[in-house]
Amino acid sequence: MTEARRKLLGAATAAARSLRGLACVAAVGLALACKTGPDLSADYGQTASENYELAIGEFADRDWEEAIAYADFVRIRFPFSRYAVEAELLVARAEFARDDFIIAQDSFRQFAKLHPTHEHVRNGWVSYMAALSAYKNAPTGFWPLPPYYQKDQSQLKDALGELAYFFDHHSGTIMEPYAVRLRDEVNRRLLEHEIYVARYYLKRNKPEAAIGRLESAHEVYPGIGLDAEVLFLLGLTYLRLDEIELARATFTELQVEHPDHSHGKQARLYLKYIFDTFGPADPNRPRPDRSPPRPVTPPLPKEKPNKSEKSESEKPEKSAPAKPATPTTATPEPQTTPVPGSEAAASPSAEASETSPSGQQQLPPPERESELELEPEPLPESLPPEG
Fold first, then answer.
1. 305 DSSP assignment
2. Domain boundaries defined on the chain
């Protein structure tokens, strides 16, 4: 009995050990499964203010991912708290700080629409940051890539749109000087792109394509610091297009406004060349035709006949049988019976006119009533006075 009892106790102990191992494994698996989701008690605070302070701390430490995570938690978990609005603005700032400028621009723009009474919206800071995000998203140039002015400038035009909204709604705020400087920088880069494109066309002997770029650049981007270069290229292009008087006026403007610039000194030489070659200024000088050429419609191709049509056209045509000639019989003229007493009243001249040389009587021709009816009445010489 003691031996059997000992065996039973050993089996019970082994079973207990196996159950204990299974319980440990289940506990570890449950713990790992729980760690896949956020542990709100350990990772996040209990209130909106605590989580917002955590987001501010991570933003100060330049940990943009954690800052966005805490700010999004405040915005989603506490949507009616006053910290939710600040957390939304913090998300836009973090997106801008980690160079995600497309999302940052959209975030600043949406914040300005959703919270128009916010302090940073009223002072223009949010709108300025939207424009700055668009400017930062524009392509930059570094070796060995091409320079920035040779690339697409659509982002800079988008920045100009954001700046136009800023000046329409926040003119006179503390952010206006920064917006003015940003606008000048954007215009300068756009002007450099226009000059590059104009030089590209001039090198390929296409002054007609370059003149539009230069005229638009001279009108749209004045006072940026590249006016002398634009005027010089504009004068050269006018000369190549035989616009003598426009070239003379452009070089004169360049010499007067930029006398100390290198292009201003070159303008004097070109003015002397124009005077020596074409004489003094003549406002009636004929100008070349710069109208764009009209497209000419090419002639339609001739349709080739099909084989069946060609074979049918080559077959000889069968002549139709001649019809037998039918004898024509002259129809006798109707005889008119003279009325008694009318022969005496008729004159010999009337009888001669009504009878043919063969002796047969002819009918008089009918009157042309249709022509008489359609003939318009003559206009009066003068109209009667009214009233």
1. P
2. 38-98, 100-204, 226-282
Q: Which two tokens stand for residue 50?
A: 């605590």
151 vs 259: CA distance, rounded Å: 33
Q: Which residue has the tokens 């008729």?
A: 346
The confidence score (pLDDT) of residue 48 equals: 92
| The two three-digit tokens of residue 331, written as one number | 């129809």
For residue 230, what are the CA distances in angstroms to 66, 147, 189, 197, 263? 50, 19, 14, 12, 10
Query: What is the chain's mean pLDDT, rounded?
Result: 78
100-204: CATH topology is: 1.25.40
pLDDT, one tens digit per residue, over 263-297 is 999 999 999 999 999 999 888 888 887 777 788 88
The answer to whether the CB of 230 falls within 8 A of the CB of 253 is no
**Residue in the structure block whose two tokens are 């030489």:** 269
More confident residue, 13 or 178: 178
Distance CA 258, CA 268 (A): 11
Axis-axis angle for helices 48-60, 82-97 (nearest 10) = 20
Reduced 3-state DSSP string for 177-204: HHHHHHHHHHHHHHHHHHHHHHHHHHHC
Residue type, 129: M
Determine contact, residues 95/68, Cβ cutoff 8 Å. yes
Residues 6+ apart with CB under 8 A from 59: 67, 90, 93, 94, 97
Helix, strand, or coil (residue 371) = helix
Torsion of CA 89, 92, 93, 96, to 10 degrees: -170
Pull the structure tokens for residue 213. Answer: 């770029």
Instruction: Write down the pLDDT at residue 163.
Output: 96
Judged by average pLDDT, the poorest of 90-94, 120-124, 220-224, 302-306 is 302-306
d(Cα 288, Cα 239) in Å, to the nearest integer? 11
What backbone torsions phi and psi does residue 87 show, to the nearest 5 degrees?
-65, -35
The pLDDT of residue 34 is: 45
Q: Would you state the structure tokens that stand for residue 231, as one six-digit string? A: 């005027």
Q: What is the DSSP string of 207-252?
A: HHHHHHHHHHHHHHSTTSS-HHHHHHHHHHHHHHTT-HHHHHHHHH
SS3 of residue 355 by DSSP:
strand
- Encoded amino acid at 249, one letter: A
Return the structure tokens found at 112: 């300005």
